[in-house]
Amino acid sequence: MLPCHCLALRRASRTATSFYDTALAPAGLTVAQFAMLRQLQALGRVSISRAAQAMQLDRTTLGRNLGPLERGGMVRIVVGETDGRQRMIEVSDRGEQAVRQAIPAWKSAQAAISGRLNPGRLALLHELLAEFESIAS
Amino acid sequence: MLPCHCLALRRASRTATSFYDTALAPAGLTVAQFAMLRQLQALGRVSISRAAQAMQLDRTTLGRNLGPLERGGMVRIVVGETDGRQRMIEVSDRGEQAVRQAIPAWKSAQAAISGRLNPGRLALLHELLAEFESIAS
DNA sequence: AGGTTATAGGCGTATATACCCGTAATTGAG
DNA sequence: CTCAATTACGGGTATATACGCCTATAACCT
After folding, report:
1. C-alpha distances in Å from residue A54, one per residue of A48, A50, A60, A63, A125
2. Which chain D positions have some atom within 7 A of a protein CB?
3. Is the full-model pTM beyond 0.85?
4. Is it the case that residue B94 has pLDDT exceeding 90?
5. What does pLDDT average to over chain A?
6. A30-98 CATH fold
């Protein structure tokens, strides 16, 4: 049974997600939510489609994932002024605070990895992942 | 914004899943189902918990994922003879046939990656993923 | 201006994933 | 042998992910 590249990535992704989710749980965020909020902060006020494109996520997936964040008061979804079709995403103060509060836990998870996988190999992993994505996308 | 190891893995996993799912779609299997069937074949008749452990999957996740396969007649779930609590998983002939039929598509997807990421780097990726998992699990 | 085309999203549906809690069956201590 | 502890699993709930179809809005062409 030859190793399936996809299976290896999926397994590693599950493991990483579980590891980070455990670390972030006290802060009340999943790693998906944390990453999404941080990316939304970096993007600023942005439409759903544009955010999805930036995050390499399906549009409808991003739309659905906004649900829990919106219910938690972390983001607001408002109709675009110039284009009535667009739904603009705004990270609320509560969302920014949640990210700030979660950052120590996230850093701790990051450090747990960095402490056991030397910087060169970690950088190489990121590089190979990026290369893989450019091939498979 | 420092790169989150988890986010990078999740992104790559999504990309890979989409790539392989597209390749496998004509065969009527998702890559998750394909990988699961192949692992079940390798394991032989096995209980749900034991299979989940072998696949590094949550037990309840594996149990749920059996649903579509069972509905499609790819696997049978039978009560264990020696232990009435166990549910033994058996890949049916239909399941084996589905795997056989999907293998060309899978190989094509594998080859599309191998053709653009040289063997050394691909092997390194697998090695780094394994290392990551051993750290984060 | 009006009709056609294109774009932005929502909703239905389905799979994938994992947590918690409850139940059934086995194991083990005495 | 009995009963407590353990183990195996199902179901409820929730998030994450994506496809297809539909609607609303905008843009474009004549």
Report:
1. 10, 6, 14, 14, 21
2. 7-20, 24-27
3. yes
4. yes
5. 96
6. Arc Repressor Mutant, subunit A (1.10.10)
